[in-house]
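Bench notes, afternoon.
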Amino acid sequence: MNAARRVLAISGGVGGAKLASGLAAVLAPGELLIAVNTGDDFEHLGLTICPDLDTLMYTLSGRADPVRGWGLADETWHCLDSLAVLGGPDWFRLGDRDLATHLRRSELLRAGRTLSEATAELARALGVRHPIVPMSDAPVRTSVDTDRGSFAFQEYFVRERCEPVVRAVRYERAADAGPAPALRAWIDGERPLVVLCPSNPYLSVDPVLAVAGMRELLGSSPVVAVSPIVGGRALKGPAAKMMAELGVSVSAYGVAEHYRGLLRAFVIDREDAAQEPAIAALGMRVLVTDTVMRDAADRERLAREVLRFMAEPAR
């Protein structure tokens, strides 16, 4: 890959953070910008909570819990336990150390900082070298319509444990939100290679794409996605369940078809190699490799393979 080529990674959730960390391991800070889904953000206990931003910051700083994949390692829960005793809401797991991040972010936002500025300050404090930006400085909120009614994302995902049957997903206020300034500048300059990390298409990537003007900005950039579905199942989260409930093929092909018209290339696992011809028929180049990231070596290997594949001339 040309060292001067810039890369934009679009990330959400644990799977996205894994590949983003692999890209950060092989690219210099000036070569990589990571844009993060903020449709999951919400106000809770008077604080602004940004789960996907935090997961990425904690992952890149080496502080993420290696078992859960989210939150901080060596976490304690004394504040949450005390909150429950006092009759407060304890359904959203805020650890004692994690609370400091939300307190500081909320303080910065109240002082007039944008979400981009607050994120940059938090990331610097945690020792993160690569730039991280929210998809927008304006609030966009993902809502899930289900057989039990409509829920804000965190209510559906955490409080309801993804149990209701999904009918539709909406991205409220996306039409009024523009891309974060640093994100727009990164795309408006030399058109970057865009990597959609293996995140839930509906809950993590689509909110980013729903931001006003985002698809148009990405229009002339080469875009590659890594499938979050391997062997008909999601490695993390409710993507497979949602696809089935929405009547979509629960497969790598189903994800590729969802992104049809946006992607130039798609990366699938060897377990799904038989789907390569059908995906190629959608007009995408296909890389078949090992996409399951069990450790840091896997993350770096996959990142290198994706970059190498996209640097090759199309056949």
